[in-house]
Design goal:
alpha/beta; Rossmann fold; seven-stranded mixed beta sheet; four-stranded parallel beta sheet; 11 helices; elongated; binds 6-O-phosphono-beta-D-fructofuranose
Length: 319
């Protein structure tokens, strides 16, 4: 194997750069030429390639976002689009492709292998942490640190004004970010798609606590469950607090990657190159406990990641 390519795709996640750096540096050390594909699958279709040397990735571990840039490419979702991408890839003369991204991007990688036999290895990167078979995806740790920092700040003003704050967080269809942020900030309630919400019961509980002297109330809602405005409409006049809404939005995707995300990304990058070199393709690198393992993409994509609902109970118990 002489030449491999790497791309980042879908929503960016802090730590993607560290993964790129590991792929490039480890690849070069193993005697490979590494080509970066700019703008994810859109760049693959356009043949937007750049050779990445050892020095091109210095100082990027600590940077959020992705130096290769990224896209959500509608054309790549079609068979014709993937055929165009495969043609460009073959013209490039690369023998392996590392895809760093979330579930949609990994689906694309799997289809490139199935339809065009392009040797792909996936690295899970998504703040949503909704990719199965891996305990953690790159970016979720940094994201959660951003979210809990924001909630702590909101708590200061919530207490000062004796208000309720409804904080909407990302996660697409997963409640992971909301649950973990709620658990670790002691939020009064967490509203997630995995658990149906009974607004009357919730309002009663919050009102009781208010009567007992509680001076603030934080409700964390996952975007996949309801909008913060809907939650406010259901609760505002029942809980005895003046209410404010905060939608954290894309701030959750940026920032300097934490130690955890850097280590995860660097080690996954190295393992992805090893998987390509050993021909174990159409796989994804996963963190299981303390081990980095290879899982067939078909398994990853056919299994929905489950939330540990014991943590939901715990969040409620400790609030
Ligand atoms: O998958 C990451 C994510 O940030 C989700 O949490 C969110 O629903 C989505 O991407 C937002 O996507 P976009 O940046 O394309 O609006």
């Amino acid at each position: 194997m002489k030449r491999v390519a790497v791309l980042t795709s879908g929503g960016d996640a802090p730590g993607m750069n560290a993964a790129i750096r590991a792929v490039v540096r480890y690849g070069v050390k193993k005697g490979l030429e590494v080509i970066g594909v700019r703008r994810g699958y859109a760049g693959l279709i356009d043949g937007d390639f750049v050779k990445l040397e050892y020095k091109d990735v210095s100082g990027i571990t600590e940077k959020g976002g992705t130096i290769l840039r990224t896209s959500r490419c509608e054309e790549f979702k079609t068979e014709a689009g993937r055929a165009r991408a495969a043609k460009k890839f073959k013209e490039l003369g690369a023998e392996g492709l590392v895809v760093i991204g979330g579930e949609g991007s990994l689906t694309g990688a799997h289809l490139l292998y199935e339809e065009h036999k392009i040797p792909v290895v996936g690295i899970p990167a998504s703040i949503d942490n909704d990719i199965s078979y891996t305990d953690k995806s790159i970016g979720v740790d940094t994201c959660l640190n951003t979210v809990i920092d924001a909630i702590q700040k909101l708590k200061d003003t919530a207490s000062s004004h004796e208000r309720a704050f409804i904080v909407e967080v990302m996660g697409r269809n997963s409640g992971y970010i909301a649950l973990m942020a709620g658990l670790t900030t002691g939020a009064e309630a967490v509203i997630i798609p995995e658990v149906p919400v009974d607004y009357s019961q919730l309002a009663e509980r919050i009102l009781e606590e208010r009567k007992r002297g509680k001076i603030n109330c934080i409700i964390v809602v996952a975007e996949g469950s309801a909008s913060a405005y809907t939650v406010a409409r259901h609760l505002e006049y029942k809980i005895g607090y003046e209410t404010r809404i905060t939608i954290l939005g894309h701030i959750q995707r940026g920032g300097v990657p934490t130690f955890f995300d850097r280590e995860l990304a660097l080690r996954m990058g190295v393992e992805a190159v090893n998987a390509l070199l050993e021909g174990e393709v159409d796989t994804m690198i996963a963190l299981q406990g303390t081990e980095y393992v290879r899982v067939p993409l078909a398994n990853v994509l056919s299994t929905k990641k489950k939330l540990d609902l014991r943590l939901y109970e715990l969040a409620y118990l400790l609030s």
